[in-house]
């Protein structure tokens, strides 16, 4: 049997230098009104920087959404190119409503494999502007060939026919019912969790240990995290991962604790 002949088929396998109009030495000689004016200008500049930052944050979310094509049923379709061997395991997706199966999907991303490394470049370091792979994605195309109705053997055959260094997969993802990829910063620990799971469970899985919290409803502010793209506040001690999150984006959380008593003033929300 060849190296690729298996159920995982390697699938596991500004202009510069303009001088200031006010010399530095003359600032001390300005009257109080002049200093006040300078302070007003500085405050306005700071406000513009914050506004520009907010626009950039929103544009980042827009960039995520532009990577996919939205289709019916809260689903997204997209291409992702994965170097070989891909490090993905595929299996038939059971159809619990109608019985049988509803295509072939990704059930495992092998840690340290090429798909896992691609996900880190797209989701963690953001050095790759493409899309990424998530457990539960359904495979509907291989190298531009439609395989939506193919069985597992048919998809394996298409992958084996690829003689290049990478395989282009066309995937479909359920953006409101599918799992969520949670990334805990700054270390980049990850967990893939089902909807309606507690965020604390995702955090514990990512870190590989039980975590302790100062309260059970987030009032103390010590466990608060900010999400990278939306800037929303998440509280691992009590938040649930619901259908509100669009899993075209990973959920990237950085610790941003608040002092006790301050947390009630910020009116946190999930996303």
Give an account of the 3D structure.
Strands 1, 2, 3, 4, 5, 6 and 7 form a seven-stranded antiparallel β-sheet that branches. The protein has a five-stranded mixed β-sheet with strand order 9-8-14-11-12, covered by helices on one side. Residues 1-44, 47-59 and 262-271 have low confidence and may be disordered. The longest helix is centred in the N-terminal third of the chain and has 35 residues, at 32-66. It is an alpha+beta fold. Strand 5 (138-142) and strand 6 form a beta hairpin. The chain has four helices and 14 strands.
Keyphrases for this structure?
single chain; 271 residues; alpha+beta; 7-stranded antiparallel sheet; 5-stranded mixed sheet; 4 helices; 24% helix; elongated
Question: Concise description?
Answer:
The protein has 4 helices and 14 strands.
Overall structural class, as computed from helix and strand content, comes to: alpha+beta
Tally the beta strands. Answer: 14
Helix content: 10-25%
Overall pLDDT confidence: 80
- Runs with pLDDT <50, length 5+? 1-44, 47-59, 262-271
Secondary-structure element sequence? Answer: HEEEEHEEHEEEEHEEEE
- The rounded distance between the terminal residues' Cα atoms is 49 Å
Largest sheet report: 7 strands, antiparallel
Beta-strand share of residues: 25-35%
Number of helices: 4
* Shape by Cα distribution: elongated
Radius of gyration: 24 Å
């Amino acid at each position: 049997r060849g190296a690729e002949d298996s159920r995982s088929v390697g699938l596991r396998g500004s202009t510069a230098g303009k001088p200031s109009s006010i010399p530095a030495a003359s600032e001390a000689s300005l009257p109080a009104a002049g200093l006040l004016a300078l302070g007003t200008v500085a405050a306005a500049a700071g406000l513009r920087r914050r506004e520009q930052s907010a626009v950039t944050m929103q544009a980042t979310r827009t960039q995520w959404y532009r990577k996919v094509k939205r289709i019916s049923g809260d689903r997204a379709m997209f291409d992702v190119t994965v170097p070989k061997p891909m490090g993905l395991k595929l299996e038939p997706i059971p159809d619990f409503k109608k019985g049988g199966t509803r295509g072939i999907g990704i059930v495992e991303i092998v840690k340290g494999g090429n798909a896992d490394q691609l996900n880190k470049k797209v989701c963690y370091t953001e050095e790759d502007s493409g899309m990424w792979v998530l457990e539960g994605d359904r495979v509907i195309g291989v190298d531009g060939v439609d395989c939506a109705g193919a069985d597992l053997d048919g998809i394996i055959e298409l992958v084996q026919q690829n003689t290049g260094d990478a395989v282009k997969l066309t995937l479909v993802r359920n953006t409101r019912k599918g799992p969520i990829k949670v990334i805990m910063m700054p270390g980049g620990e990850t967990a893939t969790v089902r909807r309606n799971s507690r965020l604390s469970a995702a955090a514990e899985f990512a870190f590989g240990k039980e975590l302790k919290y100062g309260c059970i409803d987030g009032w103390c502010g010590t466990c608060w995290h900010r999400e990278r793209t939306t800037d929303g506040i998440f509280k691992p001690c009590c938040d649930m991962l619901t259908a509100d999150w669009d899993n075209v984006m990973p959920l990237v959380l950085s610790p941003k604790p608040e002092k006790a008593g301050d947390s009630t003033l910020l009116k946190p929300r999930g996303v």
